[in-house]
Amino acid sequence: SLVGATTKEKMCYIIDPRANKITITTKAHESPKIQKMCFIDENHFITCGFNKNSMREIKLYDMRKAAEGALEEAVGKIDVDRQSGIMSPFYDDGLKLLYVPGRGEGNIHYYDLSDLQIKECSEYKSSQPQKAITMFPKKTMDYNKCEVARFAKVVGKEIMYLGFFVPRRNPGYDSSLYPPVYTGEPAITTDEWMGGANKDPIVKEINTIENKWVSEPMKFEKKVEEAKKTSDEEIKELKLKVEQLEQ
Q: DSSP secondary-structure letter at 175?
């Protein structure tokens, strides 16, 4: 029902496209460098940018605190580092995790927003800088391997895949890691939306959605057995050759 946008004037706007008006404005970051934003839920959004001292920062806003369409202060803020890459936020609303890769660098910071507070989790580090990066939808995760996020990033002239996994002693599907996910199906028609209707996205259990990325848990073990049989046959052949040569 709403659209978010950042501008060169250091402003962040929340827009109601059906009413053709700006509903909320805020000056997110003090630096004129590019800012990014994304929604967290129906009441909150975050912005990524730079302060006047060139420190990268992330801010959390509560739209319910807007007074006469203006948001004066963020409800949460965290300093990231002094790198110069533009940060792009990607949010996992199921696990409440915010991934923030930077353009021109290989690292990816990620944060926990489960309590509507920005808490630093960890950082993926890589020496291969990305020219561009995007996140796969949750319905494509390999749930048999407890994959919770996957990115495709452009490195040089190649596209590389980067997966995030939760370590588990017992392989296989763990339902606690996968709340119902968005299926990609439309919930309403264009006419309904233009008429002012709002509906929640269609969600389903991840293991009920067609997923070509999912691995078979026993497949690897079968391959190992086949390889073992092949090596035994090769040993027999080698022994026969040795006997022939000795004769």
A: G
Dump pLDDT digits (tens) for 23-77.
999 998 999 899 999 999 999 999 999 999 999 999 999 999 999 889 989 999 9
d(CA 10, CA 80): 19
> Among 142, 141, 34, which Cα is nearest to 89's?
34
Per-residue pLDDT tens over the stretch 76-123: 999 999 999 999 999 999 999 999 999 999 999 999 999 999 999 999
Residue 204: CB atoms within 10 Å: 13
**Calpha distance 16→37 (Å, rounded):** 16
Tokens of residue 55, six digits:
């420190």
Between strands 90-92 and 97-101, the pairing is: antiparallel
Banded model confidence at residue 233, pLDDT cuts 50, 70, 90: confident
Q: Which alpha helices (DSSP H) does the chain contain, by range? A: 190-194, 219-246
Burial of 49 (0-12, 13-18, 19+ CB in 10 A): buried
Q: Angle at the Cα of 39 (from 35 to 41), degrees rounded to 5?
A: 160
Identify the residue whose tokens are 């004129």.
Answer: 32
Q: List the beta bridge partners of residue 155.
A: 158
Number of other CB atoms surrounding residue 108 within 10 Å? 23
CA distance 133 to 100: 10
Amino acid of residue 247: Q
Take residue 91 and report the two structure tokens written for it. Answer: 């949010």
Instruction: Round to whole Å and give the CA distance between 4 and 37.
Output: 7
SS3 (DSSP) at 88: coil
